[in-house]
Amino acid sequence: MNNKILKILILILIVMFVGWFCFFIGLDFALKTLLLTMIIDYILGISLAIIGKSKHGDGKLSSKIGYKGLLKKINMILLVGLAVIIENYLVAIGIQVKYIKDITIIAFIVNEGISIIENSRLAGLNILDVFTRFIEFLNNIKFNNKNKK
Question: Domain span at residue 123?
């Protein structure tokens, strides 16, 4: 079978699984917000790639980079599902926790928000200096953590 067709089939299966998984864990407000920020970020990324200003690869539209981005977003949703499973397990054994899923979702929403701001800057929008400094601060933290490993 052709490699591209296999990749497309795998992606379709993963999207179907994630759809089922979202149905299983429920679409509350937090998860809807995460999905919306993911969609906005992905559309902005594709738009930048079409005009040749993407922050990934050579800056141009690439199915390989787009596929990788989708897989990252699918992985985020699966990690939210894992947080739900852990939360439910802890409640089942008598440990009263209620916010593991929400904390996980908030972390991913912040990550997507940062990416949306970066993409907006690349698109030429004037972003407040506070956001720019915040992104630089977070990038320094990421860079420093990578050096420690």
Answer: 3-148
Q: How far apart are CA 128 and CA 86, in angstroms?
A: 38
Question: How far is residue 114's CA from residue 105's CA, in Å, rounded to a whole number?
Answer: 14
64 Cβ neighbours under 8 A, 6+ residues apart: 57
Residue with structure tokens 């860079």? 143
Total domains, the chain: 1
Residues 102-131 have pLDDT tens digits of 999 999 998 898 888 888 888 887 777 777
DSSP string, the chain: --HHHHHHHHHHHHHHHHHHHHHHH---HHHHHHHHHHHHHHHHHHHHHHHT--SSTTSS--HHHHHHHHHHHHHHHHHHHHHHHHHHHHHHTT-----HHHHHHHHHHHHHHHHHHHHHHHTT----HHHHHHHHHHHHHHHHHHHH-
In tens, the pLDDT along 92-103 reads 998 888 889 899
